[in-house]
Amino acid sequence: MREALLHDTLSGKLMPLRPRDPGRVGIYACGPTVYSRIHIGNARPFVVFSLLARFLEHEGYEVSLVVNITDVNDKIYDAARAQGRASGELALEMTELYLADTDALGLGRPDHEPLASQTIGPIIEYIQTLIDRGHAYTAEGDVYFRVRSDERYGILSHRQLENMDQGEGAPDPAHPSRKEDPLDFALWKGRKADEDTWWDAPWGEGRPGWHIECSAMAEQFLGVGFDIHGGGSDLVFPHHENEAAQTRAARGGELARLWMHNGMIQFTGEKMAKSVGNVASLHEVLAEHGAEAVVMYLISGHYRQPLAFSQAALEQARANVSRIREAGRRLSPGESPGELDGLRARFFDALAHDFNTPEALAVLNEWIRRATSSSTVSPGDSHLREMLGVLGLQTLLAETAQAPAEVRDLAERREQARGARDFAAADELRAEIAQKGWEIRDVAGGFELLPR
After folding, report:
1. Domain that holds residue 142
2. Whose CB has fewer CB within 10 Å in the chain, the N or C terminal residue?
3. Is the Cβ–Cβ distance between 37 and 98 less than 8 Å?
4. Residue 85's domain is classified under what CATH number?
């Protein structure tokens, strides 16, 4: 196994991966809050940590990847209320769409995808432990965590207590705070009259706060002190800071050995966010550009850095995908030339050094240039298949087959829908093509149909 170095948010340094259990790596990455369909920014952590797991498995580790789904949250209640719908119904629909949209990326599923709504028992037990240890207190049906009871609070986000707040905005004079201290955060929220989903707890009816949900779900599958906790950089504070504090208070140890955060997708210089409205829905981007181009775009920049969103960037990703696909057609199946072994090694070394996908792609392109231009070697594609497989782009080497006329007709209608930017119709036609046993892939100047 190569030694993998990853940037740890806590220490601010590149740290060697030293698994708690030799040969086994546990990764927990925060997934979406399902109050609306996910956008391209939500897809970045899904892609980053799915591909990190692939790389570590390639290196010989047994990997367990856990990506949660937050289906109990204030945003869900608010969105459901605005639509005149039941919150559970909305959460279920958006969960199903999230699964469908991320399935379309072609990267497979995480090993575990826990739902907050199905983890209520462990959450209640967790909160009770915090109360029993004096780190939490009840207040008229709510339960709050005493931030000042954790001497290490702030070490993850590198903030001082006097420079913190929990992001709740200005106090509402009509509803005075029940907190002992403004820094404290909610572990349990008492049932409100206009909330249609709640659970019974020793301190009253209600539902969990956001932060405690993730601590309980992570521990349920990976225990305490697992190897990598991931998520977007916007979650460092307060979400991950609060997760870490809860675990120290309840379990006496650190939740994770290493904290890994990806940068945000930026739209005209601002973070892409549903709350702001500057979003590009993942399913629409997939319908317009295809899964391989979307994955290529998301790995074109280093995971820790912001990534600018633009049609030009996606078109460049499509061009890169087409170039690799065309190169693959010029190679024969079988062993790659031995003289290219050094480039293969450099590709995986780049991924081992803080999962540097841009550097790995540069090496991949150099491998293709040399393999397809050499007149002294017989080019085989084994290296290329191996490298593309780790990047989730193995379908670029799939053989094209002749689809039946009815399937090609559906594909042509989908092209027309995409040209008219009717992405809902394009999605429906893609699904119909899949039902007939084919997969449509967007390429420069058109599409390909591949047997599923």
Report:
1. 5-262
2. C
3. yes
4. 3.40.50.620
279 within domain boundaries? no
Pairing of strands 307-308, 265-267: parallel
pLDDT exceeds 80 at position 95: yes
How far is CA 423 from each of CA 44, 101, 284, 418, rounded to the nearest angstrom? 21, 13, 6, 6
User: Tokens 């967790």 identify what position?
Assistant: 126
CB–CB of 397/357 below 8 Å?
A: no
Domain boundary among 242, 262, 282: 262
pLDDT, the chain, mean: 92
Backbone phi, psi, residue 300, to 5°: -75, -20
Structural domain includes residue 47: yes
For 392-396, the CB contacts below 8 A with 24+ separation are 392/47, 392/50, 392/51, 392/54, 392/105, 392/106, 392/107, 392/295, 393/292, 393/295, 393/296, 393/321, 393/324, 395/106, 395/291, 395/292, 395/441, 395/450, 396/292, 396/321, 396/324, 396/325, 396/328
404 lies in the same domain as 256: no
For the chain, what is the radius of gyration of the CA atoms?
Answer: 24
Q: Which of 262, 294, 313 is the last residue of a domain?
A: 262
How many structural domains are present in the chain? 2
pLDDT in tens, 162-188: 777 776 654 555 556 789 999 999 999
Contact 288, 418 (CB under 8 A): yes
Neighbours of 278 (CB within 10 A): 18
Which of 441, 99, 434 is CA-nearest to residue 292?
441
Residue 447 falls within a domain, yes or no? yes
